[in-house]
Amino acid sequence: MNKPIMTKATAVWLVDNTTLSFKQIGDFCGLHELEVQGIADGDVAAGVKGFDPIVNNQLTQEEIDKATADPHHKLQLKFYSAAVGEEKRRGPRYTPLSKRQDRPASILWLVKFHPELTDGQISKLVGTTKPTIQAIRERTHWNINNIQPIDPVALGLCKQSELDAAVQKANAKKLAEGAAMTDDERRKLVSTETSLGMDVDSAVPASIAGLETFTLSTPDEDDQPEHTPDADTFFNLPASSEDDEDEDES
User: Fold this and answer.
1) Using an 8 Å Cβ cutoff, are 110 and 103 in contact?
2) Is the pTM of this model over 0.70?
3) Nearest by Cα to 73 from 88, 62, 84, 86
């Protein structure tokens, strides 16, 4: 804790009950020096009741006396051993009540389009629990038939940079493990900008695998037949029987 609770009310009390400078009070309460001056003039925090930091165990009288004697001394908040580490509390991301109903849709989107993401990564992105993710993966969620996949970025549950970072991390882990990836998986594991800059690989369908070396070409001159019949050959038909009889009578 680096600031007192009820900062303006504490500043009001210090202005009314001490001779500390505006800068000292402002530094201690996290306020601007001019804002503290406005409190003293009655222009700021009008009607706010002062909050005694000594009674509430946030300051000591000795610390106030020391700051009063030395205008350059900065007030130090009383140390709370029990409060150490409170600002780094671990746990799922907090999701506003108005958006909690959208989490299943975002989980389904991530599971469908980014199956490489772990349950822990999805939990951090949208602020949910692993049992919920597992239920959606296995399609055992109570409302699974009514859930439509929606991008969590569009829902405001996470930032695009956070999603890209999680996907890149999953990509690096998969490459480190030496797992083979298809073209579709590789495009999913990179950001949109990177994916658009990738070359499209030439792929041969499995049904004609092994035939990719065959090409269509015109035959060479050596493959041409030795003799090509001309028009006279085609029209040189054998004589009919009537012609034979005429020749015999003559």
Assistant:
1) no
2) no
3) 62
